[in-house]
Design a protein that fits this description.
The protein has 200 residues and is α/β, with parallel strands linked by helices. It is built from seven helices and seven strands. Strands 1, 2, 3, 4, 5, 6 and 7 form a seven-stranded mixed beta sheet that branches. Helix 3 crosses helix 4.
Length: 200
């Protein structure tokens, strides 16, 4: 079965590979995210994932299994997207400092007219940050392509004091949820991982 990951995110690519799925291709769907919303975060990520998935299906055909996802950071139900400037990144980090926010990821799988879509929410708490720490983190460049202006899997891990929920969801792909979804499409990721280990 041909599998498509409808995302340009290197983190999603790494996580899908780590799940045991080796043979998949990347397709960047032609989808305008601004056409969706405004909706509450949980609703928004589901709709964005479905929109990306359907756009990818239109490109590759219905016989291919398409996986799509979208992640947002929400503080008091306000969605924080990717910063458009260093100053905006600093402002986001100031707002997140010392507080708990939520990370939502919507994920969808589609094939032959079937669609399965779910979302996962993880709570993330930042320690209190100084202005110097915020400036130094922004200078690393890491915040500039990430929702909420941080990456938990990189230097930004130093900002996070605790999480409640799925760590991989914060990275952009809720691995446990996706594995359950893929089983319903005939893809057993644990079996694939076992085969991969046996071939090593």
């Amino acid at each position: 079965m041909d599998i498509i990951l409808a995302s340009g995110s290197p983190r999603r690519r790494e996580l899908l590979t780590a799940m045991g799925v080796r043979d998949f291709q990347i397709v960047i769907p032609d989808f305008d995210e601004r056409s969706v919303g405004p909706f509450p975060p949980a609703d928004l990520v589901r709709r964005l994932a479905v929109g990306k998935g359907r756009a990818a299906v239109a490109m590759v055909g219905e016989d291919t299994l398409v996986i799509a996802a979208d992640t947002v950071v929400a503080l008091d139900d306000e969605v924080l997207g990717k910063p458009r400037s260093e100053e905006e990144a600093k402002d986001m980090l100031r707002r997140l400092s010392g507080r708990t926010h939520r990370v939502f990821t919507g994920v969808t799988a589609m094939r032959q007219g079937r669609e399965s879509t779910h979302y996962v929410c993880t709570e993330v708490t930042f320690r209190a940050l100084t202005e110097e720490e915020i400036s130094n983190y922004v200078r690393t460049g890491e915040p500039m392509d990430k929702a909420g202006a941080y990456g938990i899997q990189g230097v930004g891990a130093q900002l996070v004091s605790s999480i409640s929920g799925d760590y991989f969801n914060v990275m952009g792909l809720p691995v446990c949820t996706l594995a359950e979804m893929l089983r319903h499409f005939g893809v057993d990721t644990l079996a694939l991982a076992a085969e991969r280990g046996a071939d090593a």
